[in-house]
Amino acid sequence: MPTQDILVTAPLPPFLYEPLKAGYRCHDHHLASHKPGLLAAEGARVRGLVQGGGTVTPTELLDQLPGLEIISVFGVGYDGVPVEYCRQRGIRVGHTPDVLTDDVADVAVGLVLMTGRGFAKADRFVRAGAWERGGFELTTRLGGRKAGILGLGRIGKAIAERLAAMGMRIAYTGRRPQPGVTWRYVADLESLAADSDFLIVACPGGAATRHLVNAGVLAALGAKGTIVNIARGSIIDEAALVRALESGTIKAAGLDVFENEPHVPRALLSMDNVVLLPHVGSGTHETRKAMGDLCLANLDAHFAGRPLPALIPELR
Ligand code: 8YV
Predict the structure, then answer these.
(1) Cα first-last separation, the chain
(2) Mean pLDDT over the full length of the chain
Protein backbone atom coordinates (compact mmCIF):
# COMPACT_ATOMS: atom_id res chain seq x y z
CA MET A 1 0.00 0.00 0.00
CA PRO A 2 1.39 3.44 -0.92
CA THR A 3 2.27 5.34 2.23
CA GLN A 4 3.73 8.74 1.36
CA ASP A 5 1.48 11.53 0.12
CA ILE A 6 2.60 13.42 -2.97
CA LEU A 7 1.14 16.60 -4.43
CA VAL A 8 1.24 16.74 -8.23
CA THR A 9 1.17 20.31 -9.57
CA ALA A 10 1.65 19.73 -13.31
CA PRO A 11 0.27 17.35 -15.96
CA LEU A 12 2.51 14.27 -16.09
CA PRO A 13 2.81 11.69 -18.87
CA PRO A 14 1.38 8.23 -18.05
CA PHE A 15 4.83 6.61 -18.04
CA LEU A 16 5.63 8.78 -15.02
CA TYR A 17 2.21 9.19 -13.43
CA GLU A 18 1.31 5.47 -13.44
CA PRO A 19 4.39 4.28 -11.49
CA LEU A 20 4.09 7.36 -9.28
CA LYS A 21 0.51 6.41 -8.39
CA ALA A 22 1.59 2.81 -7.80
CA GLY A 23 4.18 3.87 -5.24
CA TYR A 24 2.63 6.94 -3.62
CA ARG A 25 -0.72 8.44 -2.63
CA CYS A 26 -0.95 11.14 -5.30
CA HIS A 27 -3.08 14.27 -4.98
CA ASP A 28 -3.67 15.99 -8.28
CA HIS A 29 -3.40 19.69 -7.43
CA HIS A 30 -3.27 21.02 -10.97
CA LEU A 31 -6.57 19.31 -11.90
CA ALA A 32 -8.34 19.95 -8.57
CA SER A 33 -11.45 22.08 -9.06
CA HIS A 34 -11.15 23.38 -5.48
CA LYS A 35 -7.47 23.71 -4.66
CA PRO A 36 -7.90 25.30 -1.20
CA GLY A 37 -10.18 22.39 -0.24
CA LEU A 38 -7.60 19.84 -1.41
CA LEU A 39 -4.84 21.60 0.53
CA ALA A 40 -6.97 21.91 3.66
CA ALA A 41 -7.81 18.21 3.54
CA GLU A 42 -4.46 16.72 2.49
CA GLY A 43 -1.80 19.45 2.85
CA ALA A 44 -0.62 18.39 6.30
CA ARG A 45 0.07 14.84 5.09
CA VAL A 46 2.00 15.78 1.93
CA ARG A 47 5.70 14.85 2.04
CA GLY A 48 6.62 15.20 -1.62
CA LEU A 49 5.71 17.42 -4.58
CA VAL A 50 6.13 16.65 -8.26
CA GLN A 51 6.09 19.50 -10.78
CA GLY A 52 7.17 20.28 -14.33
CA GLY A 53 10.24 22.21 -15.38
CA GLY A 54 8.24 25.33 -16.16
CA THR A 55 5.87 25.06 -13.18
CA VAL A 56 5.98 28.01 -10.79
CA THR A 57 5.69 26.89 -7.17
CA PRO A 58 4.78 29.83 -4.92
CA THR A 59 6.00 29.89 -1.32
CA GLU A 60 2.34 30.43 -0.32
CA LEU A 61 1.60 26.92 -1.61
CA LEU A 62 4.60 25.44 0.19
CA ASP A 63 3.53 27.18 3.42
CA GLN A 64 0.44 24.96 3.32
CA LEU A 65 2.58 21.82 3.16
CA PRO A 66 4.28 21.82 6.59
CA GLY A 67 5.56 18.25 6.23
CA LEU A 68 7.04 18.68 2.76
CA GLU A 69 10.47 17.04 2.42
CA ILE A 70 11.16 16.93 -1.30
CA ILE A 71 10.25 18.61 -4.59
CA SER A 72 11.00 16.43 -7.59
CA VAL A 73 11.03 18.42 -10.83
CA PHE A 74 10.15 16.67 -14.09
CA GLY A 75 12.60 18.83 -16.01
CA VAL A 76 16.12 20.16 -15.81
CA GLY A 77 15.00 23.74 -15.16
CA TYR A 78 13.86 24.55 -11.64
CA ASP A 79 13.46 28.28 -12.07
CA GLY A 80 9.91 27.96 -10.73
CA VAL A 81 11.14 26.56 -7.40
CA PRO A 82 11.91 29.02 -4.56
CA VAL A 83 15.33 27.51 -3.84
CA GLU A 84 16.33 29.76 -0.93
CA TYR A 85 13.00 29.06 0.79
CA CYS A 86 13.59 25.31 0.29
CA ARG A 87 17.08 25.56 1.72
CA GLN A 88 15.75 27.29 4.83
CA ARG A 89 13.06 24.68 5.34
CA GLY A 90 15.40 21.79 4.53
CA ILE A 91 13.29 20.75 1.52
CA ARG A 92 15.37 18.81 -1.02
CA VAL A 93 14.94 19.57 -4.71
CA GLY A 94 15.68 17.04 -7.45
CA HIS A 95 15.63 17.61 -11.22
CA THR A 96 16.43 15.76 -14.47
CA PRO A 97 19.74 17.01 -15.93
CA ASP A 98 21.86 15.27 -18.60
CA VAL A 99 19.18 12.96 -19.99
CA LEU A 100 17.68 15.76 -22.11
CA THR A 101 20.86 17.58 -23.16
CA ASP A 102 21.19 16.10 -26.64
CA ASP A 103 17.54 16.50 -27.60
CA VAL A 104 17.42 20.15 -26.52
CA ALA A 105 20.67 20.85 -28.38
CA ASP A 106 19.17 19.22 -31.48
CA VAL A 107 16.25 21.63 -31.32
CA ALA A 108 18.62 24.61 -31.11
CA VAL A 109 20.38 23.36 -34.25
CA GLY A 110 17.00 22.83 -35.89
CA LEU A 111 16.07 26.44 -35.18
CA VAL A 112 19.40 27.67 -36.58
CA LEU A 113 18.75 25.67 -39.76
CA MET A 114 15.10 26.66 -40.01
CA THR A 115 15.78 30.37 -39.58
CA GLY A 116 19.16 30.52 -41.34
CA ARG A 117 18.22 28.43 -44.37
CA GLY A 118 14.57 29.47 -44.31
CA PHE A 119 13.25 25.90 -44.10
CA ALA A 120 9.93 26.74 -42.43
CA LYS A 121 9.28 29.44 -45.01
CA ALA A 122 10.41 27.11 -47.81
CA ASP A 123 7.96 24.45 -46.61
CA ARG A 124 5.13 27.01 -46.72
CA PHE A 125 6.33 28.00 -50.21
CA VAL A 126 5.97 24.44 -51.55
CA ARG A 127 2.60 23.87 -49.85
CA ALA A 128 1.25 27.13 -51.34
CA GLY A 129 2.13 25.89 -54.82
CA ALA A 130 4.56 28.78 -55.31
CA TRP A 131 7.35 26.47 -56.55
CA GLU A 132 5.33 25.94 -59.75
CA ARG A 133 5.99 29.61 -60.52
CA GLY A 134 9.70 29.69 -59.68
CA GLY A 135 12.41 28.67 -57.26
CA PHE A 136 12.79 29.64 -53.62
CA GLU A 137 14.89 32.63 -52.55
CA LEU A 138 18.59 32.11 -51.82
CA THR A 139 19.65 32.13 -48.18
CA THR A 140 22.98 32.57 -46.42
CA ARG A 141 25.52 29.79 -45.86
CA LEU A 142 25.76 28.69 -42.22
CA GLY A 143 29.39 27.47 -42.37
CA GLY A 144 31.71 30.28 -41.27
CA ARG A 145 28.96 32.24 -39.54
CA LYS A 146 29.23 33.24 -35.91
CA ALA A 147 27.16 31.63 -33.18
CA GLY A 148 27.19 33.33 -29.78
CA ILE A 149 25.91 31.16 -26.95
CA LEU A 150 24.46 32.67 -23.80
CA GLY A 151 25.13 30.07 -21.10
CA LEU A 152 27.72 27.40 -21.79
CA GLY A 153 26.37 24.75 -19.44
CA ARG A 154 25.70 21.17 -20.47
CA ILE A 155 23.14 22.14 -23.10
CA GLY A 156 25.14 25.16 -24.31
CA LYS A 157 28.19 22.95 -24.84
CA ALA A 158 26.17 20.36 -26.75
CA ILE A 159 24.85 23.13 -28.99
CA ALA A 160 28.36 24.52 -29.51
CA GLU A 161 29.70 21.08 -30.50
CA ARG A 162 26.93 20.61 -33.05
CA LEU A 163 27.27 24.05 -34.59
CA ALA A 164 31.07 23.78 -34.65
CA ALA A 165 30.64 20.51 -36.60
CA MET A 166 28.62 22.52 -39.13
CA GLY A 167 31.59 24.86 -39.53
CA MET A 168 30.17 27.72 -37.50
CA ARG A 169 32.44 29.87 -35.34
CA ILE A 170 31.58 29.67 -31.66
CA ALA A 171 31.83 32.22 -28.87
CA TYR A 172 29.98 32.32 -25.57
CA THR A 173 29.18 34.35 -22.53
CA GLY A 174 28.24 33.46 -18.99
CA ARG A 175 29.20 34.31 -15.44
CA ARG A 176 32.71 33.01 -15.99
CA PRO A 177 34.86 31.30 -18.66
CA GLN A 178 34.30 27.55 -18.73
CA PRO A 179 37.34 25.38 -18.04
CA GLY A 180 38.40 22.89 -20.69
CA VAL A 181 36.80 24.54 -23.72
CA THR A 182 38.54 26.32 -26.54
CA TRP A 183 35.62 28.45 -27.66
CA ARG A 184 36.08 32.20 -27.26
CA TYR A 185 34.71 33.71 -24.05
CA VAL A 186 33.15 37.16 -24.22
CA ALA A 187 32.43 38.64 -20.78
CA ASP A 188 29.68 40.97 -21.91
CA LEU A 189 26.39 39.89 -23.54
CA GLU A 190 25.99 43.01 -25.68
CA SER A 191 29.49 42.57 -27.11
CA LEU A 192 28.75 38.92 -27.86
CA ALA A 193 25.47 39.90 -29.57
CA ALA A 194 27.24 42.55 -31.65
CA ASP A 195 29.70 39.92 -32.85
CA SER A 196 27.16 37.12 -33.56
CA ASP A 197 25.04 36.11 -36.53
CA PHE A 198 23.05 33.82 -34.25
CA LEU A 199 22.60 34.56 -30.56
CA ILE A 200 21.52 31.34 -28.85
CA VAL A 201 19.94 31.49 -25.41
CA ALA A 202 20.86 28.41 -23.33
CA CYS A 203 21.17 29.69 -19.75
CA PRO A 204 18.88 28.87 -16.80
CA GLY A 205 15.72 30.92 -16.27
CA GLY A 206 14.69 32.61 -13.03
CA ALA A 207 15.09 36.02 -11.44
CA ALA A 208 18.83 36.27 -12.13
CA THR A 209 18.39 36.03 -15.91
CA ARG A 210 14.97 37.68 -16.35
CA HIS A 211 15.01 39.93 -19.45
CA LEU A 212 18.77 39.56 -19.78
CA VAL A 213 18.16 39.76 -23.52
CA ASN A 214 16.66 43.24 -23.63
CA ALA A 215 16.23 45.95 -26.27
CA GLY A 216 19.91 46.92 -25.97
CA VAL A 217 21.12 43.37 -26.61
CA LEU A 218 18.75 43.02 -29.57
CA ALA A 219 19.99 46.34 -30.99
CA ALA A 220 23.56 45.06 -30.65
CA LEU A 221 22.62 41.82 -32.45
CA GLY A 222 21.34 44.04 -35.23
CA ALA A 223 19.91 43.46 -38.70
CA LYS A 224 22.44 40.68 -39.47
CA GLY A 225 21.41 38.74 -36.40
CA THR A 226 18.99 35.97 -35.46
CA ILE A 227 17.97 35.11 -31.91
CA VAL A 228 17.34 31.48 -30.95
CA ASN A 229 15.85 30.51 -27.58
CA ILE A 230 15.59 26.94 -26.27
CA ALA A 231 15.94 27.87 -22.58
CA ARG A 232 13.19 29.92 -20.93
CA GLY A 233 10.92 32.62 -22.34
CA SER A 234 11.61 34.81 -19.33
CA ILE A 235 15.22 35.40 -20.41
CA ILE A 236 14.13 37.51 -23.39
CA ASP A 237 12.07 40.68 -22.98
CA GLU A 238 9.36 39.43 -25.35
CA ALA A 239 7.77 42.85 -25.95
CA ALA A 240 11.19 44.21 -26.92
CA LEU A 241 11.71 41.17 -29.17
CA VAL A 242 8.43 41.79 -30.99
CA ARG A 243 9.40 45.45 -31.51
CA ALA A 244 12.87 44.46 -32.74
CA LEU A 245 11.36 42.07 -35.29
CA GLU A 246 8.67 44.52 -36.39
CA SER A 247 11.17 47.31 -36.93
CA GLY A 248 13.79 45.15 -38.65
CA THR A 249 16.24 45.78 -35.82
CA ILE A 250 17.07 42.05 -35.94
CA LYS A 251 16.84 39.64 -38.84
CA ALA A 252 14.91 36.68 -37.47
CA ALA A 253 13.97 34.58 -34.44
CA GLY A 254 13.69 30.87 -33.72
CA LEU A 255 11.80 30.25 -30.48
CA ASP A 256 10.94 27.08 -28.58
CA VAL A 257 9.99 28.90 -25.37
CA PHE A 258 7.88 31.93 -24.50
CA GLU A 259 7.24 34.21 -21.55
CA ASN A 260 3.64 33.14 -21.04
CA GLU A 261 3.37 29.61 -22.42
CA PRO A 262 1.31 28.34 -24.13
CA HIS A 263 0.42 31.88 -25.21
CA VAL A 264 2.50 33.31 -28.02
CA PRO A 265 2.36 37.04 -28.86
CA ARG A 266 -0.09 37.43 -31.76
CA ALA A 267 2.30 39.70 -33.64
CA LEU A 268 4.79 36.83 -34.03
CA LEU A 269 2.25 34.52 -35.69
CA SER A 270 2.20 36.39 -38.97
CA MET A 271 5.94 37.04 -39.27
CA ASP A 272 7.68 35.10 -42.04
CA ASN A 273 11.12 35.41 -40.46
CA VAL A 274 10.08 33.80 -37.19
CA VAL A 275 9.99 30.06 -36.42
CA LEU A 276 7.78 29.07 -33.49
CA LEU A 277 7.90 25.72 -31.70
CA PRO A 278 5.64 24.63 -28.80
CA HIS A 279 8.41 23.96 -26.18
CA VAL A 280 9.51 20.66 -27.69
CA GLY A 281 13.18 20.74 -26.61
CA SER A 282 13.02 17.55 -24.57
CA GLY A 283 9.98 16.20 -26.40
CA THR A 284 11.02 12.77 -27.58
CA HIS A 285 9.67 9.46 -26.25
CA GLU A 286 13.14 8.38 -25.16
CA THR A 287 14.08 11.55 -23.33
CA ARG A 288 10.74 12.14 -21.62
CA LYS A 289 10.83 8.52 -20.39
CA ALA A 290 14.37 9.01 -19.06
CA MET A 291 13.26 12.26 -17.41
CA GLY A 292 10.29 10.47 -15.84
CA ASP A 293 12.55 7.68 -14.55
CA LEU A 294 14.94 10.19 -12.99
CA CYS A 295 12.12 12.24 -11.49
CA LEU A 296 10.81 9.06 -9.83
CA ALA A 297 14.31 7.90 -8.85
CA ASN A 298 14.86 11.17 -7.01
CA LEU A 299 11.67 10.65 -4.99
CA ASP A 300 12.34 6.99 -4.33
CA ALA A 301 15.89 7.69 -3.20
CA HIS A 302 14.70 10.37 -0.79
CA PHE A 303 12.09 8.15 0.84
CA ALA A 304 14.58 5.27 1.02
CA GLY A 305 17.02 7.52 2.88
CA ARG A 306 19.54 7.53 0.03
CA PRO A 307 21.25 10.51 -1.66
CA LEU A 308 19.27 11.88 -4.61
CA PRO A 309 20.64 10.85 -8.03
CA ALA A 310 20.15 14.47 -9.16
CA LEU A 311 19.91 17.00 -6.35
CA ILE A 312 20.10 20.60 -7.63
CA PRO A 313 23.60 22.10 -7.31
CA GLU A 314 22.55 24.88 -4.89
CA LEU A 315 21.53 22.32 -2.26
CA ARG A 316 24.53 20.00 -2.53
C1 8YV B 1 10.06 20.06 -20.22
C2 8YV B 1 11.89 21.80 -19.61
O3 8YV B 1 9.19 20.37 -21.28
O4 8YV B 1 13.43 20.37 -18.62
C5 8YV B 1 12.94 21.47 -18.62
O6 8YV B 1 13.30 22.34 -17.82
O7 8YV B 1 11.51 22.91 -19.74
C8 8YV B 1 11.34 20.76 -20.53
O9 8YV B 1 12.28 19.82 -20.83
C10 8YV B 1 9.32 20.28 -18.99
O11 8YV B 1 10.12 20.19 -17.87
C12 8YV B 1 8.18 19.30 -18.83
O13 8YV B 1 7.55 19.55 -17.67
Answers:
(1) 32
(2) 98
